[in-house]
Specification:
With 119 residues, this protein is an alpha+beta fold. 40% of the residues lie in helices and 13% in strands. The protein has a two-stranded antiparallel ribbon. Residues 70-87 have a biased composition (Basic residues).
Length: 119
């Protein structure tokens, strides 16, 4: 048998409003704010209210919000004209037509780095 929901509607509305104002806040920062506002509620109850609100679709979960925020901000890497793949079956006609360069960075100490190139 599931537990009955017994928090007040004022508390539910305030938790929902705080979460919508601050979409990355979890139960602890919301609980602190509610305590300062005079609500007598435990941190665990705030977590239950958030789970109820997320389950009913009234607020978005923090993970979903961050994933959505990340999705729009990712800049595309510029294309590298110097690193184009040759088509399958590419025939080398002259020396120097097809080369490969490997790079290796060696850190010798703080502030000391050397780079080794081999072709």
């Amino acid at each position: 048998m599931r537990r009955r929901i017994y928090w007040s509607s004022d508390l539910l509305i305030r938790v929902e409003a705080l979460r919508k104002e601050n979409p990355t806040w979890g139960r602890w920062p919301i609980w602190l704010t509610l305590r300062k506002e005079g609500f007598a509620v435990s941190e665990r109850t705030v977590g239950r209210i958030l789970a109820y609100l997320e389950g009913s679709g009234r607020v978005e979960s923090v993970a979903a919000f961050l994933a959505q925020a990340r999705r729009g901000k990712g800049e595309r890497r510029p294309r590298r004209p110097y690193a184009q793949r040759k088509p399958k079956g590419y025939e080398v006609g002259h020396p120097g037509d097809l080369i490969q360069v490997d790079t290796l960075t060696v850190t010798l100490g703080p502030g000391e780095r050397i780079q080794h190139f081999s072709a």
